[in-house]
Design goal:
135 residues; alpha/beta; 4-stranded mixed β-sheet; 3 helices; 26% helix; globular; binds zinc ion
């Protein structure tokens, strides 16, 4: 019986494909040129243009937390041209290079942050559809 401990080579090779992370940034305080580095996906406000994928639902008194997000996810799933809208959004982000912007949070798709913003839902969807993750 051999009791030889064969050392396995460590897997140090990094994947050849880049790992794209779809970020969400809080646009509060972004001015001038800094705004060009963000794909704003909120409602028209404070000089930001409304985005077609902005959340049409506003919180109502007495809503359970997350109600607007649930409504938003349902609204999205019913969109007949969702594929096209997501492709357009992906191109707007320059294939994931630019973050999505809203007023709620800073986060990255898949980082485990609580989902409190419709932009995080969009970021997750972009990641699911377009980002190739390895490893
Ligand atoms: Zn938001």
């Amino acid at each position: 019986m051999r009791d030889e401990q064969e050392e396995k080579p460590l897997l140090l090779d990094t994947p050849a494909k880049p790992l794209s992370l779809i970020r969400v940034v809080n646009v509060s305080g972004l001015r001038g040129e800094a705004r060009k580095g963000v794909v704003y996906v909120g409602r028209g406000f404070a000089g930001w243009m409304a985005h077609p994928l902005g959340n049409p639902f506003r919180p109502q008194a007495g809503d359970l937390p997350g109600t607007c997000l649930t409504l938003y996810a349902e609204w999205l799933s019913r969109k007949k041209n969702l594929d096209e809208l997501m492709r357009k959004l992906w191109i707007q982000t320059q294939l994931g290079a630019l973050p999505l912007g809203c007023w709620c949070t800073d986060a990255t798709a898949g980082d485990g942050s609580p989902i409190i913003c419709h932009a995080q839902i969009l970021a997750d969807m972009l990641r699911d559809r377009f980002v190739v993750t390895t490893g």
